[in-house]
Amino acid sequence: MNTYIEANQFGILVLPEETQDEYKKRLHLAPSCPKEDLAELETMYDIRPASIDVTYSNERLSFFEAGCTWMQDDEQGKKAWIQLRKIFQYKDRYLFFYSKAEVLAHEYVHAIRYPLGSNKFEEFFAYYLSKNQSRLRAFLGPLFETSRDTYFFLLSFILPFCYSLIFSLTWMLPEWLGPLFFLLPVATTLYFTLRLLTRWRILYRCKNVLKQVVKGNPLHLMVRLTDEEIELFAHKDAHGIINWIEKQKQCSFRWQLLAAAYYEGKVGYA
Predict the structure, then answer these.
(1) What is the C-alpha separation between 209 and 245, in angstroms, rounded?
(2) How far is the C-alpha of 121 from the C-alpha of 118, rounded, in Å?
(3) By CB neighbour count within 10 A (0-12 exposed, 13-18 middle, 19+ buried), where does 131 fall?
(4) Is the pTM of this model over 0.90?
(5) Separation between Cα atoms, residue 108 and residue 270, nearest integer Å
(6) Are the CB atoms for 202 and 173 separated by under 8 Å?
(7) What is the pLDDT of residues 30-88, one digit of tens each?
(8) Are 192 and 153 spatial neighbours (Cβ–Cβ below 8 Å)?
């Protein structure tokens, strides 16, 4: 089991429904030693990332993106690699506030959680690594889940401007369209804000109850959970989580491993 726990610390997570033999086979195809020394990632999430390919290129990156994680599925399973801006080859910062270590750790979270197939809280875990540099960025960073969210948000502000311009030139558009266009940015801002606050609330509830049943930092276990497990734990008390984990251990290799690494098995551990 120690070998599997070490692989788990390298960020090679056991997938839901994966058996011990399947995981063992996947380990033979994966790197066996860490490549990057990212102290924040290890302290916060107990991850010393194994070798994941990192390339340096500005291709397909928006101006506000310092890096990106690309994923693909093939016959050997799910794979990911990281793309950083070329400037990080010879400078440590981009746009004054993005540091290479912070961006790399952020992208490693995406790469490591990608095989879980759970992306609802992925940006939250990735941006939470920034809390020592900027609490505001750590909190507001997950406002947008994908780049499509960002473009949709910006478009909701551009459309009213375009409407005003066209209407002032033609005077031919229906008047009832005006209020609808100007409500659009308000509605989108409200939607993304409420989504952000709701998901932070779920994460904090999950973290607080897990403090009672895990060894050490509850984030070590949380970053390895699926979206469904995070939401489930957020709505259970400590005894309910213990009962749930004990049942999972009987039939799930993944939970046998996670329990051996992080689970205390009783209420009140600190």
Answers:
(1) 14
(2) 7
(3) middle
(4) no
(5) 28
(6) no
(7) 655 556 668 889 999 999 887 678 899 999 888 878 999 998 776 656 678 899 999 99
(8) yes
